[in-house]
Amino acid sequence: MPSWSTASLGFRNRLEGWRPANTAPALHNLVHVWVGGDMHPSSSPNDPVFYLNHCNVDRIWAAWLERNGSTYVPDQTAPTTLRGHRLDDTVNALLSDPVTPRQMIDVGDVYNYDTLVVS
Prior knowledge:
mainly alpha
């Protein structure tokens, strides 16, 4: 099963909280529900906790990359039905020119974590 499928038991779905159903820590998704208020609806960026939550997701992703290497799938050979998600597909950014996932895998030239526990 492809790792980007919402039915996958891979890292992404465990971090997001999609799989395994009812047993995953749901590190990202349930924070929106637990905090409630502005964090629950589509206005979640109005709540400062939104940024704390997403910074933590980014920190966990950085630790995963450090441990497993910068593997990103789907690559450019994936079907066009995944356009916008493949390694070299252009993604619009709010504060910069469009970028690709390949350009954003290593953000070490932009920022880094002073402590990053990789177990």
